[in-house]
Design a protein that fits this description.
By secondary structure, the chain is mainly alpha-helical. Helix content is about 65%, strand content about 5%. It has 19 helices and 3 strands. α8 (about 200-220) packs parallel to α11. The N and C termini lie far apart (about 80 Å).
Amino acid sequence: MPADERFAVRRDRARASVPRPLTAASAPSGVPLPDGLALRGRLATGARRPETPRGSGRGGPGSRPPRTGRGGGPRRTYERARRAWDRPLTAYYVILGSSLLITVLGLVMVYSASMIKALDISKPSTYFFGKQFLAAVIGGALMFVAARMPVKLHRALAYPILMVTVFLMVLVQVPGIGMSVNGNQNWLYLGGPFQLQPSEFGKLALILWGADLLARKQDKRLLTQWKHMLVPLVPVAFMLLGLIMLGGDMGTAIILTAILFGLLWLAGAPTRLFAGVLGAAAAIAFLLIRTSPNRMSRLACMGVSEPDPEGGCWQAAHGIYALASGGWFGSGLGASVEKWGQLPEPHTDFIFAITGEELGLAGTLSVLALFAALGYAGIRVAGRTEDPFVRFAAGGVTTWITAQAVINIGAVLGLLPIAGVPLPLFSYGGSALLPTMFAVGLMIAFAREDPAAKAALAMRKPGVRWKTMRRRVKKRPSGER
């Protein structure tokens, strides 16, 4: 054998004696290789990855779509919304935003619903709107002051507000001082076109005084005894109810009763005690309704779709007409037909019906959503605090606003008897708007008192943010940042 052939044979034998790595190509057919062996085979054989063409990197035409993760789409949106709702300042912004939106939308609807009524009494078309706007400005100032006041100052004002309110409610019943409006002796004349209804301030007085009373008793661990839970809260509430019923205002008395039940529920009243007070209140309400033909006629107008031939249930029927003619998006702002003398009280008790006629189902659902957001934020403030006064006061204000909204809207829809109560923050009436806006400022103050909310608000101050940024950014030796 020639030397060249012997050299070739030795070279082939040497190459065959070296163990070669297994690759996908050298594997037996039908036998898959483990990922580790295949990877080592590719590395040992020096196989290279195919080069990525230019422009196919991040954002390029050949890039892969980003992964959305497990449960992407609606689930991720839901998780983001839930995390946003759990932030410390959510209740603060929801209370402030929803209350302001309700007030502004109420001003618009008061102007639209009252212009014909103002012209009918030989007044400018902006007569009722101007008075409501002035009350909203004063109420906004009260809300700002209440939101900035500390909780201790709110507790200190509880007894003075109660005493002044009781004094004014007594003055209403004095002949020559009190005024009667629509058959109710619940008004004080202030001069000019301005009047005051002290019973509206009685709701705020009962909440502040009752919250302070129950908080002090809880600190002393006295609420486990039913005597301390009822006395003197229930007697004082019945005194306010008696002064209100002397003037014949059944609607305000119902709201005050709902506030009393809310405070007792938050105080942890046992079921039998709660049921006893509720039964006594229901018996008194039945007696008052049974002995009054006017209240019996209002009760008989529930669910009617057309007025009686003698003119009964006129307001309830035309409220349904206004809502039914609104459709999905309404007839347009200012284009209501029922406000031209067909619907009584279009800018006060039945402003929700005019809203449904002019803004349609979309407008009424928006109003309901705003009240639902305000009520839920109030429940959140009452449920997350450790201060018993804040819990009782926030729960009382939430009960007040939501109960009054439900009674007003239920009467317009024909589901409840007409109680003659305005829609909070929405209907015309300065006496109702001022204490309600102060109560909203009270809840804003409570939302700000939360420790997590305090820390979040402190971080939003310009001075704190600048100091934080200066601590985070270190100065380099060269003087650059």
